[in-house]
Amino acid sequence: MKVLFVLILFLSMEQTFSQTVFQTAQEQRTDSVAQLVKKYYNTKQTDSLYALTGKAFKEKVPLSALEQGLLTQLAPYGAITLFEFVNSKNGVSRYKTKLLGGLTLQTLIGLDSDGYMQTFAMQPWRDESAPKRTTLYSDNPMVSELDSAVDKAARSYMMDTVTAGLSISVHVNGKDYFYNYGETDKSTRQKPSSETVYEIGSITKTFTGYLLAKAVSEKKVKLTDPITLYLPDSVASNPGIKNIQLVHLANHTSGLPRLPVDLYNAPGMNRDDPYAHYNEKLLFNGLSQIKPLREPGEQYEYSNYAMGLLGCILAGVYKIPYPDLVEKHMLIPMKMGHSTAGNSLPSGTSIGYNEKGQPASYWKFDALAAAGSIKSNASDLLTYGKIMMLSFLEKS
């Protein structure tokens, strides 16, 4: 999936040691802390990870912010499967970091004089050997403070040639602004626009949440309804899921794991398109046997599994497939004409690229569509954002 929201926490660190032999010892000391970072990340012990940081870091970044970034933004991509030292510069060690879901990052770690982290960052991977851009297309007019602020952020993001294109929409003081950078197709050098369609990934979950709220407001369901009310008897009979409520699926406290435990082992699995094969039969079969590790409502754990299940339940309540449910109750009334929750590709869909700058596969969805199937563009998403914000303001 090509739309990523990645935690970036970075505090600069001055070079304080210059002797090569001492620098090597420092790298070893940093590596011992780095291995603990990997361990605590994989076990979701964010409090233990936070305890590795020093006073300077804690003054800038509260524990809640670290938890929000790690658990909400990165946890959907799974555990660290590769954590490889790359180099050290100015006292900060750089590790190539791969997550189970296919995301590749660079983790930056630097220690203070007491051995605690004063630099900690998990950022998009940058291949330092990759050629840098000499030119960058942009339609930013660069006449206002907003233009300059957007340009600064966009150019930083687009600094290497692996990132192909970028579309940005902003609503401020009653006006809409659109900015585009780079290309949507490297081979034809096609330029992006506010109409360029992207896979929006987990932003889909906010649509699913809206549909749940709609069902509640129409008294079709209650947030506290047990999910077993909406499941086949063969699934509902599993005692491990009897206490899970609809609200637990929506707020990631169901106790269900991030992904179905059989996702990668089920027949038809393709790691380039990992959700396409996972149909409702597989979903219900797994759910009939699962034993959650904790009671619902006890702990937050981001779950594509839970959100996909919620979409299936809502589709059953409304008696139409999830893509049609989104189309009928959101995309059409909100006039989001360039968006879809189905597996078809709207005209103007951008080409995604992997970390090597090669074209990447589009993802298809079946039973887990509610977790990440929607494709949209900057114009439609700005419309969506304004409608959601206006609705919030009217109710507050």
Can you offer a commentary on this structure?
34% of the residues lie in helices and 14% in strands. Strand 3 (104-111) and strand 4 form a beta hairpin. It is α+β, with helices and mostly antiparallel strands. It has helices at 20-42, 46-50, 55-60, 63-74, 145-157, 204-217, 233-236, 246-250, 280-287, 304-318, 322-331, 378-395, and strands at 80-89, 92-99, 104-111, 117-124, 165-172, 175-182, 197-199, 375-377. It has a four-stranded antiparallel beta sheet. Strands 5-6 form a two-stranded antiparallel ribbon. Strands 7-8 form a two-stranded antiparallel sheet. Helix 6 (204-217) packs across helix 10 (304-318). It contains twelve helices and eight strands.
Strand order across the largest sheet: 1-2-3-4
- Binned, the helix content reads 25-40%
What is the 3D form? globular
Largest sheet: 4 strands, antiparallel
* Radius of gyration, whole Å: 22 Å
Low-confidence stretches: 1-23
How many strand segments? 8
Which structural class do the helices and strands define? alpha+beta
- Please write the string of helix (H) and strand (E) elements: HHHHEEEEHEEEHHHHHHEH
Number of helices: 12
| Residues in β-strands, percent | 5-15%
- Report the span from N to C terminus: 34 Å
pLDDT averaged residue by residue: 89
In short:
The chain has 396 residues and is an alpha+beta fold.
Task: For this entry, give a set of tags.
alpha+beta, disordered N terminus, 34% helix, 14% strand, 4-stranded antiparallel sheet, globular, 396 residues, two-stranded antiparallel ribbon
